[in-house]
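Our working data are protein records whose layout never changes between entries. Instead of coordinates, the fold is spelled out as a row of discrete tokens. Here is such a record, shown just as it appears in the course material:
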Amino acid sequence: MKKKLIASVLALFTIISLVGCGSTQTTANADAKEPTKQEDSNPNEKTVDGIKFTLESATKEPVKGDRTKDNVAQYNGEYFAIGSKIVKAADYENVVVNLKIENTTDKAITLSKYGWSAKMKDGYKLKDHTPSDDLKGQVASNNYVEGQVKVLVEKKLNVKEFNLSYNLIDYTNFEKAMGDAISGTKEDELNKKYPELLKENYITFNIQVN
């Protein structure tokens, strides 16, 4: 039952994967009925609610192993872990997406690690993606940060194109909602208690890599 509730919450809040713990806050106004979106002429630039995302580059890099097949730590080992699963490093690669995020508003914002998602054109979700520290922290008013999102992909998928998205909403209460779900709170009750987590305010880039 708890696993079912967690899965329901994850789907409800459009979160693709959860990594680590920590308090996160908002980049969007939870009271706003409609997001303020600006059409940018450059497809590598997207602006929502005064927050400008710029796609700077996307490249592939090999995955470095750090353990043996038997899960024993080994420098430059042939294997690495994806959660509890031990896989061969040579079968995977990272797509490294470099981004610049500018806060043109007069208030500091906080980016959340929970806001990122990646999906191929056929709908296949790339669940293993990790933003660098700069892309999951505060951005001062009228200032910017630069960082990267690493998307782990299997080589057999032959990934050449996918969409990388960030949902620009208020994640302040996300972990509280997860705790409530684990404790048995029903979905409709979660909806009423945390309506800000139901909002969709996506910035999406089409990522193409060779």
